[in-house]
Amino acid sequence: MEEESFVREIVYDNYYWQNNLVRLRAWSEDDWEWDYYTNFDTSAARLADYEVDLPPTPLNSKKYSERIANLCTNNCRITFAIETLDGIHVGRINILLDDDKNGTFGIGLKIDREHRGKGYGTSAMKLLLKYGFMERRLNKYSVSVLEGNEGSIKMHKKLGCEQEGVLKQNIYTNGRYYDEIYFGLTKEMYLNIWK
């Protein structure tokens, strides 16, 4: 894919899709390499997808990136790349908009191993929560987290989500059954926390 060249410099001073730590941009077909290399982190894949994928291939990452590029809605998901304000690609985040009738949504997040624990995931989540609640008029964010995914549990609590329930021994992976923990955040809770 040929690189776009612009005459003017982009000024991000008043840009909705960034905060003090990260900027979201449309996923690009050229982001396939990021996807490919992060797919070798089996522990992260197990925590995110509750399973072990088959060995990664460049072709599969290219096809996946082609499917989700340019903010295409793929299975009601819109996918963004997460970059630092210096333009370093640190992650991927998507918003699941499959239940307008009930006003609920979900968010999926993946941060590259070397960039975890620096607040990038939490900052990107804040942008999509704001978008879901304040622009899409949605009422509830819901997510399930695999038992043992301490990073995700800590992040969701920091964002103000409440644990709503546990499905005991609901997910089978790595030779045993794991609990699936559900968290939720309503718009009212969000507004009380993030005024």
From TrEMBL:
It comes from the Bacteria. One of its GO terms (molecular function) is acyltransferase activity, transferring groups other than amino-acyl groups. Residues 22-188 form the N-acetyltransferase domain. SUPFAM superfamilies: Acyl-CoA N-acyltransferases (Nat) (SSF55729). The keyword Transferase applies. Keywords: Transferase. This is Acetyltransferase.
